[in-house]
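[scheduler] slot 2 assigned
[scheduler] job type: sequence-to-structure, two independent chains
[scheduler] chain ordering preserved from manifest
[runner] begin chain α
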Amino acid sequence: MPIIAVAPLFFLLLMPHRLVAESAVKHLTIGAFSYLPYVDETASDFGSLAAITKLAFEVTGIEVHYKFFPLKRALREAEEGQVDGLIGCFFSEERSHYLDYSIPMENVPVNFFALREKHLRWDMEMLKAYYVGVQNGTSLATDLRKLGIPVEESQNNGMNLKKLLANRIDLFVGSTAWIQHELQHKFSVAERRRIEVLDPPFQVQKLYFAASKQHKNHQFIIERFNRGLEVIRKDGRYRKLQRRYQKL
């Protein structure tokens, strides 16, 4: 058969699968966890990252509904296919076995926090002598253990900050904006003054939307999200949403 006849036949064979995927994916249930200030369960539209994700899907004809869980539960729900995807994800090799990642949405600095009166600084060798607090379920715990750094996990940022103030850990590491938001809203001025951010950042992580690989159309979902995200970045709506939340 001539090549010129094969090419149209090949694309015709692909079309039914694509049309089925397009007609099947009209609604998504996306798992979320509180990741302030980016994702906020108490806000009317759940924060900037949730609003951006919803809009990116809307411009490609997909409706989004959010379900909130603690971080570890949200990851398990995605792994088991109980939700169609997750927002606010860092990339890790382990998670890539069950999550399909979008193009990056945000760059997020990750810093160490310490008591100001201890005058601590850090490098990779010094870290091995410290006990470092980290939130349970985050990829940071895995990263630190691989480097031989003693880690103590807690359920949330607030518990880690209380441990730091009580001298039960030497350092606390996490998303800088998230921890600063926690300090600003849940700790006294006197407590905030005792805590400092150590530079340089330990990491600059990227935040992603991720589709559960249990969803048979996960590649199509990621393709649609990426397309929608590019559209709202180009037409200015992405930046408009960012500026709106920066003022809050």
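[runner] end chain α
[runner] begin chain β
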Amino acid sequence: MKRNFYVFMALFSAIIFSVSLFYYLQNMDEPVVIETKPIVIAKADIPARSIIQMDQLEIINIPAEGYPQGGISTIEEVAGNVLLVNTKKGDWMIVPMLEIPSKSYSDPFISYEGFSLTVPEGKRAVAVPVGLIGSVGYKVRPGDRVDVLVTIDIREEAGTRTITSLAAQDILVLNTGFQNGSTSEETLNTDSCILALTVPQAMSITLGSERGSIRLILRNPVNKEMYTETPIDPSVYFDSDYFSHY
């Protein structure tokens, strides 16, 4: 009697195991469905402060669970805007990376295409002459922030005095000029940088470039310090407090 009971329990357990294994294997065969959403990405490298073109973009699908805040799903929402940062091929396009130009569509005589859209509101695009030294060894690139030094000779009754002045700070570089059309390190030949300046800054720096020389100081993007330094002349080196101040 006991033997029959044990045989019955063994058969019952085998049936339960077989049914459980069957349903487990059935569930394994079913594909896992992952919800996805479209996002616009860069189809190629795009430099900062350039107007994004439609052929520079493409759309891919990514898991909705990891979708970035501010992600953009259509190319039309991105094309025509100004890119604020350097972007590599495959980078996602998100709203904080874009500067959307303000447009007054009520005026049909205003053009909304071209380099002028890269100029921030309230600023003017001004080209300043710089060479190897003035452009930090040709390391200044569009999207960088710079300070501007002006060195100029001042004529006085006692003679001519050379001064250096901090003419502008935390200035956005809109573009750089390349004489030979190449951007490679070996053939780079920058003779100008285009800066985004207010009108008073443009007047001051233009005077300095016409009567003296310009030198750019490259900033770290996170450095937002502002200084109120007075112009200096060679007499500063004879000041007994030179090292305590500088």
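[runner] end chain β
[qc] chain β: Strands lie at 36-42, 57-63, 82-83, 98-99, 124-129, 145-156, 159-178, 190-197, 212-218.
[scheduler] slot 2 released
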